[in-house]
Every structure is written in C-alpha cells, then in structure tokens.
Design goal:
The protein is α+β, with helices and mostly antiparallel strands. It folds into two domains: 268 residues, Beta-lactamase (3-Layer(aba) Sandwich), CATH 3.40.710; 146 residues, no CATH class. It is 30% helix and 15% strand. It is built from 13 helices and twelve strands. The strands form three sheets. Strands 4-3-12-11-10 form a five-stranded antiparallel sheet. Strands 8-7-6-5-9 form a five-stranded mixed sheet, covered by helices on one side. Helix 4 crosses helix 6. The longest helix has 17 residues. It is elongated. The relative contact order is 0.20. The N terminus is likely disordered.
C-alpha cells in the first residue's frame, strides 16, 4: 500500500528574505562603525581570512582545516538521536578532496522526493547547451484553413495577454503565435494539436491522481499552458487534466474560432510553418525548476535530455537518459530505481551516496560543466523552498546564507542535498534522506544539516 502524500509539497512562493538579510547586515555594519550621531562605537571582530578560488574549485578559505571523521560524528550525535528522523540515509563529503567524512546507510535505496531533481539538473547541464530553448510551432494542415499547434515540449507557454506577468519568466505566449498566424496569409477555420513529441503515458506509476487537482503536477504533454495551471498566476491553482487540448483551445479562441472544435491530430510531414515561439533559455528554466521544485518543468527538461541522448521522450526514456549521462561523468548510479525525473512518484528510489556524488562532482575540481548546479540550489533562509527554513535561531543559528540545498518533501519523507561552508571556511557536500519520519521530521533534518555550519570538527 502506498503512503498518502503531503499536499503542497512542491509549492512555495519564492522569498526575498536574502535581500532583506543583506540589507540588514549592511545597515548593522553602518551603525556599528559610526561613532557619531548618538551611536556608540562598537568593536568589530576581525574579518575572516580571505577566500581563495583555485580553478575549478569552490572558494575555500586558504587555511580552512578539513573536519575529521570522529569530530564530525561527535558533533552530529545529538541531532542524529532525534527519533523524528525515522530511517535516515546520509553522507557528508569534503568538497575539495572528495573524501567521505560521514556515512549512514548511504547505499540504501530510499524515497528521495524532489531531491531527485538534482540528478535531472545535473544531467541537463552535462548534456544540453545552457542557452537551449524549446520551440512551439503552428503549421498548416493538409486541409485548407486547418492549423496545427505542434508541441515541442515547452510547458511554460502562456495564454497571458501582452504586458501581463506569466508564471514563468521569459515565457512564450499564445498571443505571439496568433499574430504570426494572422500575418501568414492563412485564414484559420479549425485548430488541431500535435502531441506526438512525447510518447505515452502522461503520468507514471506512483503519482497520486489527486495531485493534479491539488496543483502539484499535470499530465505531461508536449504542449501546455503555464504547466497546466487553470489559474496561471495563482500558486495554489489546480491543474488541467487535458493541458494540450487547453492550449489548442486558447489558440482557437485567440483566432476567433470555436474552442470546442479543437482536436488532437498529428501534423503532416513537411507542413508549412506559420508561426513559432521559443521558451526561455535552459539555465533560466532550470533555476525555476530547482527554486520552487517545479515537477512539470522537471519532467519536460528530462525529456530534453532524453532527446539529446537519443532516447524516447517518455518517463522511461528520460530516466534512462539521465542515469546514463551521469554514468558517463563517472557518477555511479547503482541503487537508483526511478520512474520519473521530478521525484514525485512514491516508487522512486535513490541512495544518499548517489545524491552526494552528484553534488560533490559539481563542487569538486573535475566537472566544471556541473558548477552551475551549485547556483541553482535554494539558499537557507533566503530563496525558493528554503526561504522560510533555517530561520529558527534555536536550532539553525548561523546556517542562514551559508547552506544551499535542494529539498524533498512527501508524506513522512524529508530530504536535503547540497553544499555548506562550515564556520572554519571548509566546503562540505551532503545528502540526507529521511523516510518514515515523525511529525517534526522536517525540523529534525534541518537541524542536522545546520549543525554542519557550526562544525569545525577537527578534533
């Protein structure tokens, strides 16, 4: 029996907490250093050693010591004893040397939830151009007046009118397709939608059908509007059960046609192109995917990797492509048993070792193509799915701004995979997967990860 999932696990409003923290720090520094105007001068501790950046290595303080295995284990002992962690698999590694410093069931396959997106993002960075865009087209069918909306795999296409914000930055718009069709000289009489770029099924094993109505995901089709959101600019919007047809209906309505007449049909080979629009660049879409843990973006980007790796653009094809591409980067994916590229399925299994290996490859010296992955992780207390986490000084003091990680959350499942600079200036990578967690499991895993910042751990 599959566990019920925690709703709204993948939605969050991107915060601006980090900007506020930076502004507060600047203001505080100004007050502390100003001796006049009634403000008492306060002695400021000396600045830490300047960080140096060796080529291909994340900045590390020149004299920062690497934690010892014993010191790290001792430091983490109290947090590890929290029963709300449930079954915990984890690994912590020194970023620069790749030396594992702590492990616990790190080779045991566990439900990763959305930390699965770390693999998707890494494979995309290794396979695709950062500026890659996805094209949506309108072509002429064989029958006069019939036009075909051909999906290329861009779920960010929007029906929002010009000048109105869309859910996704830089999104292509139906209005642009409409204008181009009108200028093409064709007088449309009907709209069809070609969804053949993706192969069936539209949902994989382990997805809860209720997640569509609850707004976590939509059936994955090669053309969608705002990733299937019925209310495009609403964070809690339910999703459509027929996103491709909805996109065709939006185009038909914009062209002055009856939306009820839209149907699914493949475009004829060699059809004349009447209009085309392109998505935002890959790196921007990856940023949105990782920041708010966007399931639909993850599935569609997974299919971009599949196409580049000459696999079917399907759930099975994307998983095969992602794991194989990571293997070519010498990341051992043994123990991975995945059915999607978003981590939404309760049938997904990953090990903490695999997750940490991917993060360490990004932070270490050998794979500079993966370096942008570090910038895609949400910042503790500052952005994305971590904007409201790590802010309790009682358990997470000091970690704000120093820890970046991809989150994963389903019912009784909490996971974090990312990188942290500890208080001595040493950079550590980590992966923590908690299954069968207790009611405060998320707080428990945050406290464990935050402890790494204050570590030092050299004795």
């Amino acid at each position: 029996m599959r566990p019920s999932r925690w709703r709204r696990s993948t939605h969050v409003i991107v915060g601006v907490v980090m900007l506020a923290l930076v502004a507060a720090a600047v203001a505080a520094a100004a007050l502390l250093t100003a001796g006049g105007h009634g403000t008492k001068a306060v002695r400021i501790p000396p600045a830490p050693h300047a960080a140096t950046a060796a080529p291909g290595v994340v900045p590390v303080a020149a004299s920062a010591p690497m934690p010892t295995e014993g010191g790290l284990a001792t430091t983490l002992a109290a947090q590890l004893a929290n029963p709300n962690l449930g079954r915990l698999g984890g690994r912590i590694t020194d970023a620069m040397t790749g030396k594992p410093l702590w492990q616990q069931q790190d080779d045991v396959p566990m439900q990763p939830a959305s930390t699965n997106k770390v693999l998707t993002a890494a494979a995309a960075l290794l396979t695709l151009d950062r500026e890659a865009r996805v094209t949506t087209r309108v072509v002429a069918a064989n029958k006069p007046g019939v036009v075909v909306l051909v999906g290329g795999g861009d779920p960010t296409l929007s029906a929002a009118p010009p000048g109105q914000d869309t859910w996704y930055g830089g999104a292509a718009r139906i209005s642009d397709l409409t204008d181009q069709v009108r200028r093409s000289g064709v007088t449309p009489t009907a709209v069809q939608v070609d969804t053949s770029a993706f192969t069936d099924p539209t949902t994989p094993p382990g997805w809860d059908p209720g997640d569509i109505d609850d707004g976590d995901v939509a059936p994955i089709e090669s053309v969608m509007l705002d990733a299937g959101r019925i209310q495009p600019a609403t964070v809690d919007s339910a999703r459509s059960h027929s996103p491709a047809l909805d996109a065709g209906r939006a185009l038909a309505g914009a062209l002055g046609l009856d939306p009820a007449t839209v149907s699914i049909a493949a475009a004829p080979a060699g059809a004349r192109e009447l209009a085309s629009v392109r998505s935002a660049p890959l790196i921007q879409r990856l940023g949105e995917m990782m920041s708010v843990s966007d399931n639909v973006l993850a599935e569609c980007i997974g299919r971009e990797v599949a196409a580049a790796m000459h696999r079917p653009r399907s759930f099975a094809g994307e998983v095969d492509a992602i794991t194989n591409r990571l293997s070519t980067a010498h990341i051992d994916t043994t123990g991975a048993a995945l059915v999607d590229s978003s981590g939404l399925s309760v049938d997904d299994r990953l090990t903490a070792k695999i997750l940490d290996d991917v993060v360490q490859a990004a932070a270490g010296p050998d794979w500079p193509a993966l370096r942008p992955l570090l910038d895609l992780f949400p910042i503790a207390g500052g952005s994305g799915t971590l904007s409201e986490r790590f802010v309790d000084p009682a358990t997470n003091k000091g970690a704000v701004g120093w820890l970046r990680a991809k989150t994963g959350s389903l019912t009784a499942i909490n996971a974090l995979a990312g990188v942290v600079t500890d208080s001595s200036g040493r950079v550590l990578t980590f992966a923590l997967i908690s299954n069968d967690a207790g009611p405060t499991g998320r707080t428990a895993i945050d406290a464990l990860a935050a402890r790494l910042w204050s570590c030092g751990c050299v004795t």
